[in-house]
Amino acid sequence: MEDELSWHNEFYRNVLLNIDEEVLRPLFVDGNMGAPTKQLRILVAMRILKEGRGCSDEQLYENVRFNLVWRQAVGLFNINDECPSIDSYYKLFRRIAEYEQNSPEHVNLYKKIYQDLTAKQIRKYKIAGRTVRMDSKLIGSNIAWFSRYEIIHETFRKQVSQDFCFGHADNL
What we know:
Mean pLDDT: 83
Shape: extended
Oligomer: single chain
Structural class: mainly alpha
């Protein structure tokens, strides 16, 4: 778990530490949600982790509570560090949705945080986005230009001709 390049350490450095909690400040005006907690960054990172890993809320919470790697990814390094409650998680994202629905500009604060993280990573890793890299094997292949139907058809055609060439026509 000490490997600096492991996914949980990369997630901690590139996601958790770069979440701008100031974006969520509109949720805390006029006492509509109480005081912001130190766990906002963790809650947002948990949501990103959930979406990235494609897991349910229950799986997310089980992993953040009991899996040391997931705990480190969201900044819970000590055994005594408590995982935010699932109620806090649901309340924050319900408030973000309500804010989007009720704000005149329909601002999605979660989307703003995500876009900010993406922009920071683009700058950090110097990603231009003006060019598209392709695997060298695909450059000379027609597969890049085929539709799904054409891929299936061409694969089937080659398999059938191969079976006839090697005397496996009885397998059809």
